[in-house]
Amino acid sequence: KAGVTQTPRYLIKTRGQQVTLSCSPISGHRSVSWYQQTPGQGLQFLFEYFSETQRNKGNFPGRFSGRQFSNSRSEMNVSTLELGDSALYLCASSLEQGLEQYFGPGTRLTVT
Amino acid sequence: QQQVKQSPQSLIVQKGGISIINCAYENTAFDYFPWYQQFPGKGPALLIAIRPDVSEKKEGRFTISFNKSAKQFSLHIMDSQPGDSATYFCAASMDSGYSTLTFGKGTMLLVSP
């Protein structure tokens, strides 16, 4: 089975712009979670989607949003980018009620 | 509030030695405790996981020890190899937590040849 794929792998944006990141889960996985990884804060949960519905959300501002499509693919969007949004954004997928989460390689976002 | 505390931040072990990484949690509702391994430029990879109904789980050279009363769990890597050099993260989740993982800050392990 193919693993979790994320596109793009690298992205450079300017402050104030917006960005959309994409994630394709492992085939058959219906839950997709997003995490932000930074050297200072480590891995922090952003949100989780299942069957196109956001089931849980972490403690991030409303500039961070996401959605899931009927094929379980997911996108996350960050609007009005700030320098502090520079991070590795990781997507993880799991089965319907699965606790085992499998991560993609991440998208490295740099905000200048 | 950091709900999962991980130590040490970094660790150097000689080849063939035992690497030990410790984690402590605060939320007694946590009931699933995985360990992830991350190499530079890669996403975290699930290594091994444990539920609180067992005190130890072993998979190859990797062992999780779990102490429910102390709210602590640890990862032991036996016969550590240079290829084990990576960052290790402990995490915790709740069965009802909709796949939300709370991570420790990570331990950078270096296994010297």
Rg of Cα set of chain A: 13 Å
Share of β-strand residues of chain A: over 45%
The CA-CA distance between the termini of chain B, in Å, is 38 Å
Which structural class do you get from the secondary structure elements of chain A? Answer: mainly beta
Broad shape of chain B: globular
Low-confidence stretches of chain A: none
Enumerate how many helices of chain A there are, as a single number.
0
Shape category of chain A:
globular
Overall pLDDT metric of chain B: 93
Query: How many strands appear in the DSSP assignment of chain B?
Result: 11
Assembly of the depicted chains: heterodimer
Distance between the termini of chain A: 37 Å
Q: From the alpha-carbon coordinates, what is the Rg of chain B to the nearest angstrom?
A: 13 Å
Largest sheet of chain A: 7 strands, mixed
The largest interface is: A-B, 25 and 24 residues
How many strand elements of chain A?
11
Runs of chain B in which pLDDT lies below 50 for 5 or more consecutive residues are none
Q: Helical amount among residues of chain A, as a percent range? A: under 10%
Q: Characterize the largest beta sheet of chain B: strand count, sense, and whether it forms a barrel.
A: 6 strands, mixed
Q: Provide mean pLDDT of chain A, rounded.
A: 94
